[in-house]
Amino acid sequence: MEFTRLCFSVFSIFLLSYVCSVHGRLYDYPKMSHFRALSQISLPPSPAPEGAPKIDNAIFNVLSYGAVGDGVTDDTQAFKMAWDAACQVDSAILLVPNHYSFMIQSTIFTGPCKSGLVFQIEGTIMPPDGPDSWPKNVSKKQWLVFYRINGMSMQGGGIIDGKGEKWWNLPCKPHKGINGTTPPGPCDSPVAMKFFMSSNLTVQGLKIKNSPLFHFRFDSCRDVHLDSLYIKAPPQSPNTDGIHIENTNDVTIRNSIISNGDDCISIGAGCYNVDIRNMTCGPSHGISIGSLGFRNSRACVSNITVADSTIKYSNNGVRIKTWQGGFGTVSKVNFNNIRMESVRNPIILDQYYCDKRSCANQTSAVYISDVIYSNIKGTYDVRSPPMHLACSNNVPCTNLTFLDVELYPAQGQKILEPFCWNAYGALRTLTIPPVFCLLEGTPQSLPSNDIDQC
């Protein structure tokens, strides 16, 4: 009897081992890992039990939330669901996979999210095809918006295609008609990617093209780091600024190539501590501070550096532009080590900026001071003087410094003289061409109510 029990026990153990081994073969490692990935991706995150191991770098693939990626199907909801899930997990990766094209409607991705979120774009993202395809009752001023995000990285080898061609041809856009007029009509066009009230952002390695309006806009952000971006739109595409920042501070922009129909980089009011280096810009409208002071507004910009860059075949090189009637200050600006190639206005400071045929004269102005132009060399398009310093009648520019500036005509041998108006500063070395029109010293007086606003 005991021998029978012993045999039965041995048989039971053998049978259990056999079943477990078969179970293990049926659900080998690849399939089990697939099941684990699906559980992480498809289900909303829930609090981990006490003592459970922390899951790092959970991948949230938009395909697992129903995205199709054929370039036609509306994948907006899948992206929203993937975002909401990834947003709740530390060190999550929201994956837009390669070999797919995703059409997304105007969408706001809202934070705050857990730390270390990575938005990994390997495929293509695109909006509806033009204003006629835009959903009714949805704002046409924005496409992809990131709101109250802290600590996100956006990266990858994918493409963001703004499909802006049909927007550029709206009747209101400045494709200058007869006698330089632009017919009236609907004009709203979306910024491709907007970051609003966000911090500690990194955007790197992406390609973005053909935005209906600005490609990137950062508004009320801080600690923004942009690197190795490729931004492209046709030279005649209107208002397609590559990168625009407004009320944003502590910004670095590095190692990028921008070719478009407006400013490569534009710096708006409320920006400070901005460092731009190793850029290739053009054809474009150059790298600009402004326009500032629009509709008698206050503008404060300081501690701006643009260095070690090339600007080519562009309407402007390095530019500061302000409207008459504004107030505030632009100060501590350093343009250093910049190569110009056939640029129409390599150095331009314009306090009479006007986007139409004429603008009314006004006495107040944004005060501009402490601007350094050093080691700026290359060639200029002979249709305009190589240096244009047009400062306000009532609020002159002060402490402009020129050092190692050499600009030669791209064609012919005639060197045009710089233009100056109410501009004060110093030549640390003899420039080519010489800026003899620059006024020495400082003006006798400055209206304090115009300059003590920052």
SSE order and pairing:
Blueprint: H1 2-26, H2 29-42, E1 59-61, E2 70-74, H3 76-86, E3 93-96, E4 101-103, E5 107-110, E6 118-121, E7 124-126, E8 142-147, E9 153-155, E10 159-161, H4 165-168, E11 191-196, E12 199-204, E13 207-209, E14 216-219, E15 222-227, E16 230-232, E17 243-246, E18 249-259, E19 265-267, E20 272-281, E21 287-292, E22 298-312, E23 316-322, E24 327-343, E25 345-350, E26 367-380, E27 387-390, E28 397-409, E29 419-421, E30 423-427, H5 448-451
Parallel strand pairs: 1-3, 2-4, 3-6, 4-7, 5-8, 6-9, 7-10, 8-11, 9-12, 10-13, 11-14, 12-15, 13-16, 14-17, 15-18, 16-18, 17-19, 18-20, 19-21, 20-22, 21-23, 22-24, 23-25, 24-26, 25-27, 26-28, 27-29, 28-30
Keywords:
5 helices; mainly beta; single chain; 19-stranded parallel beta sheet; disordered N terminus; 454 residues
Tell me the span between the first and last alpha carbons.
Answer: 99 Å
**Count of runs of 4 or more consecutive helical residues:** 5
Q: What shape does the CA trace take?
A: elongated
- Please outline the major beta sheet: 19 strands, parallel
Describe the structure.
It is a single chain. This protein has 454 residues and is mainly β. 13% of the residues lie in helices and 41% in strands. The protein has helices spanning 2-26, 29-42, 76-86, 165-168, 448-451, and strands spanning 59-61, 70-74, 93-96, 101-103, 107-110, 118-121, 124-126, 142-147, 153-155, 159-161, 191-196, 199-204, 207-209, 216-219, 222-227, 230-232, 243-246, 249-259, 265-267, 272-281, 287-292, 298-312, 316-322, 327-343, 345-350, 367-380, 387-390, 397-409, 419-421, 423-427. The chain has a 19-stranded parallel β-sheet that branches. An 11-stranded parallel β-sheet has the order 5-8-11-14-17-19-21-23-25-27-29. The longest helix is centred in the N-terminal third of the chain and has 25 residues, at 2-26. Residues 1-56 have low confidence and may be disordered.
